[in-house]
Amino acid sequence: MDVLSLQPTIILTTKQEQQTTQAQVGDLIEVRLPASSHWDTLTASVGPALAAYQPQGAFDSSLNACVWDFGVVQRGDVPLQFTGGALCATDAPCPMYAILAEFTIHIR
Q1: CATH, range 3-107
Q2: Listed residue (82, 76, 75) closest to 32, CA to CA
Q3: I need a surface site. Which of 4, 58, 84, 101 has the fewest CB within 10 A?
Q4: What are the residue ranges spanned by the domains of the chain?
Q5: In angstroms, rounded to a whole number, what is the distance separating the alpha carbons of residues 100 and 17?
Q6: Could you read off the pLDDT of 34-68 as tens digits, one per residue?
Q7: pLDDT band at 18 (very low <50, low <70, confident <90, very high)
Q8: The whole model's pTM is what?
Q9: How many angstroms separate the CA atoms of 21 and 61, rounded?
Q10: What is d(CA 46, CA 87) in angstroms, rounded to the nearest whole number?
């Protein structure tokens, strides 16, 4: 499946953090986090409920965001966690901080 040709059913941004998002099997969930940080996925596994489409965490210049896409394939509750850090040049000092972005998805 070419995920780039699909339109997300649900878009999660930092505005939806700490909230439970309702989804259903067949939805396409897109997480968009600001490109002002370097983001990593903390969630070790989205389990059988979500299928992660590649590439994960890709930079989308038109949105100025890092993007993750997930297909909803099974009912359940799924936590998604991401951690962000400073964007720094390799030869420059870099501040040490972490930003946590957490989302909960309830699939019915």
Answers
A1: 2.60.40.2020
A2: 82
A3: 4
A4: 3-107
A5: 9
A6: 999 999 887 756 778 999 999 999 999 999 999 99
A7: confident
A8: 0.88
A9: 26
A10: 26
